[in-house]
Amino acid sequence: MLSLTRYQWTVFFAAWLGWGFDLFDSLLFSYVAPNCVPTLLNLPIGSPEAKAATLFWTGLLTSILLIGWAAGGVIFGTVADRIGRSKTMMFTILCFSLGTASCAAAPNITILILARIIASLGLGGEWAAGASLVAEVVPERSRVEAGALLYTSAPLGLTLATLVNLLVAGVLFKNNPEISWRFVFLFGLLPALVAFLLRYFVKEPESWRAASNMPASTIKELFAPQNFPLTRCGMITATVALLTWWTCNGFIPVISAGLAHTEAQIQGLDKVATQALIEQWKTIASNSFNLGGLIGTLLTVPLAKYWGRRKMLFLYFLLSGLALIVTFGIDWPPQTLIYLYFPIGLTVFGVFGSFTYYLPELFPTRLRATGSGFCYNIGRVIAAGGPFLVGAIASSGSNALNTALGLQLWLAVVPLIGLFCMPWVIETKNC
Fold first, then answer.
1. Rounded distance, CA 334 to CA 255, Å?
2. What's the pLDDT at 388?
3. What is the pTM of this model?
4. Residue 245 CB contacts under 8 Å (≥ 6 apart), including other chains
5. How far apart are the first and last CA of the chain?
6. What is the pLDDT, as a whole number, of residue 241?
7. What is the pLDDT of residue 229?
8. 119: domain range?
9. CATH of residue 359
10. CA 102 distance to own-chain centroid
11. Residue 403 φ/ψ, nearest 5 degrees
12. Residue 45 lies in a domain
């Protein structure tokens, strides 16, 4: 059980909000892509050309986001070790908040990409600073629980993004999908409120203040003989999880929208009814994934404490592969398939509840944000290839939706490969 002082709870709550809004902002594009991309390309929403273009640009922009996220994580991880966790969190939150809101004014795809790059740099930097802040302020006896609870804000942040999209695109502007996506992006300003909380209530951890008098950390140190096994372990586990999560989650709104559009054609629904069904199915699929992720995140606590980190990661990678095979390897009715995102969320999403405490545990204080930020975010560079390939291949096929579903099945190979990397995974329980 958590036993924290009032100030420790304040720090935890600030980091919890920061990470939740991090995911909230990062996934807004995936929800609005079926309306945003065709509008910016002057294509009729729902047309075959629009569907193919949406798949391609969803994959490309998700990959660009991940590369920018990785760059931000590496850069700001080092910055957090030098100027402090709280200051870095405040700056990165403002960065991704303003970058996301700027997407609302994009007149074309090029400007949209530039705004997403600005947002991605802040998104990547926030995680390293926030995870290190919590790891250093919370007592060691409560680190696992605090780390897992910190990540519960991720599925809640994604759920908030789903509800915002449903409210704006499915209710307020359901008859105007060409402009609804711009108002969805404006909600990206919400995280800026967290920056003010950090500015006035959160101080730098005592352990960081003590270590700040030592020579500044560098990325080169992560590859020194004594640190390389730690870096290799963090990179492998994060890359496997990130590649699986982003290649899967980035296409949930697109796939569920495609399934709903096909169902609407079978039922002979008109344009307004079709759009309502699309937003409904996107919400169901996304919330199924997010609910599974929330439960899976909490389950990492007993598993990590009693089984250890290595066995826990092995179990999550194994079940992630099985969940993808069961979901996409069987010809389910579309109404059933969107609910099967729950077991995928339970495993593919749930494993991330461990990274907020596992990666900081690997590194000493003066290297904590640098090491955690590097390992967690450098995996995004490799993970960036997944969404791009899925989008490019699916958009070039004669039946883009079926191609995308088939590629999701092949994604199961990634976490199963992770099982063979377990000899390099370092156990940090009782360390």
1. 10
2. 72
3. 0.74
4. 348, 349, 352, 383
5. 19
6. 93
7. 92
8. 6-199+216-424
9. 1.20.1250.20
10. 20
11. -65, -45
12. yes
Q: At what angle do helices 109-137 and 6-40 cross, to 10 degrees?
A: 170
Token duo for residue 27: 């996934």
Q: Are 408 and 323 spatial neighbours (Cβ–Cβ below 8 Å)? A: no
Provide the phi-psi class of 46: left if phi over 0, else alpha when psi is between -120 and 50, else beta: left
208 in any annotated domain: no
Instruction: Mark the ranges of the chain whose per-residue pLDDT is less than 50.
Output: 1
- Rounded CA separation 92/259 (Å): 37
Domain count, the chain: 1
Q: What tokens were used for 248?
A: 């899967």
Among 106, 114, 22, 24, CA closest to 61: 114
Q: Is 119 exposed, middle or buried (0-12, 13-18, 19+ CB in 10 A)?
A: buried
Residue with tokens 């989008």: 391
Does 116 reside within a domain? yes
pLDDT at 296: 94
Q: CA-CA distance, 304 to 324, in Å (whole number)?
A: 23
What per-residue confidence (pLDDT) applies to 213?
Answer: 63
Confirm if 356 and 22 have CB atoms less than 8 A apart: no
Q: Are 412 and 324 in contact (CB under 8 A)?
A: yes
CA dihedral 151, 155, 160, 161 (to 10 degrees): 110
Query: With helix as H, strand as E and coil as C, how does the chain read?
Result: CCCCCHHHHHHHHHHHHHHHHHHHHHHHHHHHHHHHHHHHCCCCCCCHHHHHHHHHHHHHHHHHHHHHHHHHHHHHHHHHHHHCHHHHHHHHHHHHHHHHHHHHHCCCHHHHHHHHHHHHHHHHHHHHHHHHHHHHHCCHHHHHHHHHHHHCHHHHHHHHHHHHHHHHHHHHCCCCHHHHHHHHHHHHHCCHHHHHHHHHHCCCCHHHHHHCCCCCCCHHHHHCCCCHHHHHHHHHHHHHHHHHHHHHHCCHHHHHHHHHHHHHHHHCCCHHHHHHHHHHHHHHHHHHHHHHHHHHHHHHHHHHHHCCHHHHHHHHHHHHHHHHHHHHCCCCCHHHHHHHHHHHHHHHHHHHHCHHHHHHHHCCHHHHHHHHHHHHHHHHHHHCHHHHHHHHHHHHCCCHHHHHHHHHHHCCHHHHHHHCCHHHCCCCCCC
Classify residue 431: in a domain, yes or no: no
Longest dimension (CA), the chain: 69
